[in-house]
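Figure 6 in text form: structure in, sequence out.
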């Protein structure tokens, strides 16, 4: 009985999914030095293996994605990011982020069939036996990180695309006043998130005092931006060359990779909805 228990424990350790700093940097689209700087600033503490190398699990990746969002997308300083992270932990129902590590086995098969590949063709191009690929697709066996990366790389996808990371309580409907207030580093700007689940889009309701806004031109690594003016007058400048004045009922959309800045150009309080998509 003791022998079986030790064997199960060993297997569980082998099945743990850990990533090194270079892999995680690639997943969240930053350079490894950025992650090291976040750790030096006290935003998180990395796990370390016996060789003292940093390792990261799925919870760590989600935390780093949040730090990146606060840092690059919302231009928060380190002190404010710490407050936001503390706020997130305190207000979490379990005080811990729990993410499923279940692989979408059927999704692997769907990707293969969508691209009209047979198991034998994938086998030849990945060096993984067709019988093993079949068992993986059916969820009949465990799979190592290296093997899994080979398969997902062949399909041109991140391995995270094949994991269920979204099991968490979410709101389908937000009633008036139920949005999640977010701290803003911008003077005269109040922001409320209108979505509390992991998604490809993130809608935020802005309330901006006269003459206030984000005057620092910036861009993001990918995705699209959509803005709808609820009331007031918004000035948006793209690539430091095109300037648009938007009034109540107007909207604008542009690629996130374009440099942009904005401010309240009216005499009254400005309100608008800004939706950022990651694809």
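Output sequence:
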């Amino acid at each position: 009985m003791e022998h079986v228990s030790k064997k199960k424990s060993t297997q569980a350790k082998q099945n743990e999914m850990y990533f090194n700093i270079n892999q995680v940097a690639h997943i969240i689209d930053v350079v490894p030095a950025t992650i090291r700087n976040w750790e030096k600033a006290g935003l998180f503490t990395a796990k370390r293996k016996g060789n003292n190398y940093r390792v990261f699990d799925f919870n760590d990746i989600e935390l780093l994605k949040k730090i990146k969002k606060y840092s690059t997308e919302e231009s928060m300083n380190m002190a404010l990011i710490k407050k936001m992270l503390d706020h997130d932990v305190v207000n979490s129902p379990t005080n811990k982020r729990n993410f499923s590590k279940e692989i979408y086995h059927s999704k692997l098969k769907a990707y293969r069939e969508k691209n009209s590949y047979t198991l034998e063709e994938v086998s030849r191009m990945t060096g993984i036996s067709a019988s093993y690929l079949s068992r993986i697709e059916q969820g009949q066996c465990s799979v190592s990180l290296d093997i899994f990366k080979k398969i997902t790389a062949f399909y041109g996808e991140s391995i995270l695309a094949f994991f269920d990371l979204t099991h968490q309580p979410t709101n389908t409907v937000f009633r008036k006043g139920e949005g999640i207030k977010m701290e803003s580093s911008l003077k005269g700007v109040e922001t409320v998130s209108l979505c509390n689940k992991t998604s490809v889009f993130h809608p935020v309701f802005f309330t901006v005092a006269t003459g206030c806004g984000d005057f620092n031109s910036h861009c993001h690594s990918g995705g699209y931006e959509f803005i709808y003016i609820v009331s007031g007058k918004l000035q948006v400048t793209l690539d430091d060359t095109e300037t648009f004045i938007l009034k109540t009922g107007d909207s604008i959309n542009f690629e996130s990779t374009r440099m942009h800045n904005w401010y309240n150009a009216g005499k009254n309080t400005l309100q608008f909805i800004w939706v950022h998509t990651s694809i």
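Caption detail: The chain has three domains: 2-90, 105-162, 180-277.
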